[in-house]
Amino acid sequence: MYKALRYIVILALIGVGVFWVVTRPAQVDAAQVAQLSTDAARGETVFWAAGCAACHAAPGAEDEERRVLSGGMAFPSPFGTFHAPNISPDPDHGIGGWSVADLASAMLHGTAPDGAHYYPAFPYASYARATLDDVGDLHAYLMTLPASDTPSRPHDVGFPFNIRRSLGGWKWLFAHDDWIVPVTGETLERGRYLVEALGHCGECHTPRNALGGLDYGRWLQGAPSPDGKGRVPAITPDKLDWSERDIAAYLSTGFTPEYDVAGGHMTEVVKNLAHLPEDDLSAIAAYLKAVPPGS
């Protein structure tokens, strides 16, 4: 009995050690971004491509109010309801005190400045593919936006999903920076970067497994809406038979080739993408036509 108990204790300690190592938060070292030459003008393009205003502007904000990132949008899910935080330059309620390394840690690793894991409602599983240059430029642009002293709303998440440390295990299983679709050529690679990284299109258009990880084997093949109402459509070439020109036009205007208009959360996406240069929208369209069709 004593020997068996000893083995159990040893195995338990090993298990705790492995868990602690696997779930430790990753952060970007300040030295990695110290030499970046950041540019707020370039950062504005990153801002719109990454959809920051779609989630972090106050619900119902329009025009210039969309640049006030006071947060508040709610995201219902099977794991609880998440609320987009204030990411304005306010030093107390926003991210005014964040460094470039802090923003890079958040976007690339899902780690807060204090070392806590962020929930993947913040799409860092996609942003992990972004470049440090783009993160630095985005930081420069965010710091030019109006500050808001609106406090961030806490998430409504119950046990066991409120155990932040366990999110390290989720990241270990499901968050990586590998490209999903192999492509070659400048246009297709730019389109892939905008779709798989900054635009995080797969976060809505790809089905998830029971733990909320994206099912990359069914990339962009459509998924149930996280709030349980309706379905997000597939945008693989076999389901979306629009031409590249039609896709690019839809992303800039919201009008489909059938003269229908974008609805739901896609209206926010179009408001963001309409700010991108025409070449970027064409690159997105080219990539979507190059994605393998669904089964």
From TrEMBL:
Record organism: Aquicoccus porphyridii
Q: What is this protein called?
A: Cytochrome c
- Organism placement in taxonomy: Bacteria, Pseudomonadati, Pseudomonadota, Alphaproteobacteria, Rhodobacterales
Question: Gene3D superfamilies from the xrefs?
Answer: Cytochrome c-like domain
| UniProt keyword Kinase present | no
**Where, if anywhere, are coiled coils annotated?**
none
Q: Name one Pfam family in it.
A: Cytochrom_C
Cytochrome c domain: residues covered: 38-146, 186-292
Q: Name one GO molecular function term.
A: heme binding
Q: Tell me which UniProt keywords the record has, alphabetically.
A: Heme, Iron, Metal-binding
Q: Which domain of life is it from?
A: Bacteria
Q: Does the keyword Metal-binding apply?
A: yes
